[in-house]
Write a structure and sequence with these properties.
12 strands; Pept_S26A_signal_pept_1_CS; transmembrane; Umud Fragment, subunit A; hydrolase; alpha+beta; protease
Length: about 190
């Protein structure tokens, strides 16, 4: 074997190895992208709007698969695009879906005339909020087609549909399924 053959074979092996590593990283990137955009995404909760169901700094997985097979329902905890801040994701509980009427009477939430049983609010009253600019919400409020009404479980510290109005179903990125960190808060919704 001549010296040139050895160098040629060695450089061919390096090129093949380099291509293999590039393909590995491209494949991994594509797999992560597919998983995050179509199956599940992890979020760290920055605020107390869902306390005590979800605490500040809890790590939550929001899954997308169930909404391929069913509609969003009352009680689901959903992640969605913040109506006010582009690129930010919020997490809240679904209180009503399109066509349902929400009312706030004496601090209690009524949907279609029935007072909700909401043990997750720990007795906090649900009062109307001053709305965001260019948003009008008056009660009773009927949720428009293609929208949902969401509220944080920590009713006294949550900017939610009372503030920014209904949320478009198309902006929902998933259903919160599991708190996976910290260990003491691990749980399924």
């Amino acid at each position: 074997m001549a010296y040139g053959d050895h160098v040629e074979r060695r450089s061919g092996g390096i090129v093949r190895s380099l291509i293999s590593w590039v393909m590995f990283f491209v494949t991994m990137f594509v797999m992560v992208w597919v998983i995050q955009n179509f199956i599940v995404r992890a979020y760290v909760i920055p605020s107390g709007s869902m306390e005590s169901t979800i605490e500040i700094n809890d790590h939550v997985w929001s899954e997308k698969v169930s909404y391929y097979f069913r509609d969003i329902e009352y009680g689901d905890i959903v992640t969605f695009d913040d109506p006010e801040v582009a690129g930010r994701t919020l997490i809240k509980r679904v209180i009503a879906t399109e066509g349902q009427t929400v009312d706030l009477i004496d601090g209690y939430v009524y949907v279609d005339g029935v007072q909700l049983d909401e043990p997750y609010t720990k007795g906090q009253l649900s009062e109307p909020l001053d709305t965001a600019a260019n948003v009008t919400v008056s009660y009773p409020y009927t949720v428009p087609e293609g929208c949902i009404w969401v509220m944080g479980d920590n009713r006294t510290h949550s900017a939610d549909s009372r503030y920014f109005g209904p949320v478009s179903v198309s902006s929902v990125s998933g259903r919160a399924a599991i708190i996976y960190w910290p260990i003491e808060n691990i749980g399924v919704f």
